[in-house]
Amino acid sequence: MVRQAGYELNMMELELDPRRQRHSFELLLESNCAGAVCYMTKLEPVKDLVAKLLARRIPLVVLGPPADWHPMPGFYGVDMDNLHAVEDAINMLLRLGHRHIAHTVYPVGTLRVHEFFVEKLRRAGISSWDPAFHVEMRSNLNNFELGYLAAGKLLEEKPEVTAIQCFSDRFAMGLMRRFYEMGISVPGDISVIGSENDLFAEYNTISLSTIDTGGSRMGRCAWELLQRHLDDPSLPMESFIETVQAKFIPRESIGMVSEKTAFFKLRENRRNESLHLSEF
Questions:
Q1: Rounded to an integer, what distance in angstroms lies between the CA atom of residue 70 and that of residue 79?
Q2: Is the peptide bond before 187 cis (omega within 30 degrees of 0)?
Q3: CA angle in degrees (0–180, nearest 5) for 245-242-3
Q4: Torsion of CA 155, 164, 93, 159, to 10 degrees
Q5: Residue 193 dihedral angles phi and psi, to the nearest 5°
Q6: How many other C-beta atoms lie within 10 A of the C-beta of residue 129?
Q7: DSSP readout, the chain?
Q8: Cα distance between residue 85 and residue 105, in whole Å
Q9: pLDDT for 40
Q10: What pLDDT is attached to residue 126?
Q11: Distance in angstroms between the alpha carbons of the first and the last residue of the chain
């Protein structure tokens, strides 16, 4: 879309480290860019640099947007509402007989989703179950690896779990790979749902149910906000947030609740392996 409109697209990584964020915005200020789109978790560390960018009438669209976002002329946000999609996922799991549904919680984000999960399960009569599965984010591991390593921890911490909704598709696929090695069937023993609608999700050996968080739609919306000003620089610089709706996509990784929990199946598999080894 950008190149079709006659512009060149340059991409920069806006890291979580505030010092690196400032460096990225300093480079933007030195460039001859006509507009910018970025993702940031907090505005405060770069607020002064953002103000300088906007003072030059260079529109800036923030995906997220950050929790401390506030209106400034030329400063726009594109948000994603995933609660309706999460509700659709929970409703389907409940219809399939699941009661012990978990979801991943990590230090940055997911608080709103967690509160929604708790309330949704409470309304279904499930009040004694904590759906939160805490995941430690590690910079030296990708999401596949995080999911792979988290599988055993999930079953140990939540032996009654029958379904889990993960923060990313790649985390979910890493989880599923480890379950396969453990002899845990997806969706026979446990149902798994990802998030993002990664390209690999649909073409996984067991296609992954997912929350399509609308990344491409957010990108299109961000470009349309920029394009208005690029096409007509005389337009007044406004400031508001557009919202894109996420969508639940059910696939093969969810099924009817199992009569036995995945943890029970794991212990059964280990017992059978021990009996098999004792025969030699």
A1: 13
A2: yes
A3: 95
A4: 10
A5: -125, 135
A6: 15
A7: -TTTTT---------SSHHHHHHHHHHHHHS--S-EEEE-S-SGGGHHHHHHHHHTT--EEEEE--TT----TTEEEEEEE-HHHHHHHHHHHHHTT---EEEEE-SSS-HHHHHHHHHHHHHTT--S---EEE----TTS-HHHHHHHHHHHHHHH-TT--EEE-SSHHHHHHHHHHHHHHT--TTTT-EEEEES--HHHHHSSSPPEEEE--HHHHHHHHHHHHHHHHH-TTS-----EEEEE-EEE--TT--SPPSS-HHHHHHHHHHHHHHHHHT-
A8: 17
A9: 81
A10: 96
A11: 65
The pLDDT value given to residue 66: 86
State how far the Cα of 61 lies from the Cα of 49, in Å rounded to an integer: 14
Q: What is the pLDDT of residues 93-121, one digit of tens each?
A: 999 999 999 999 987 656 788 999 999 99
Residue with tokens 């995080």: 146
pLDDT at res. 261? 77
Amino acid sitting at position 4: Q
Residue 208, CA distances (Å) to 12, 135, 137, 200 in order:
30, 20, 22, 9
CA distance 165 to 146: 15
Contact 132, 102 (CB under 8 A): yes
Residues in the chain where the model's pLDDT stays below 50: 277-278, 280
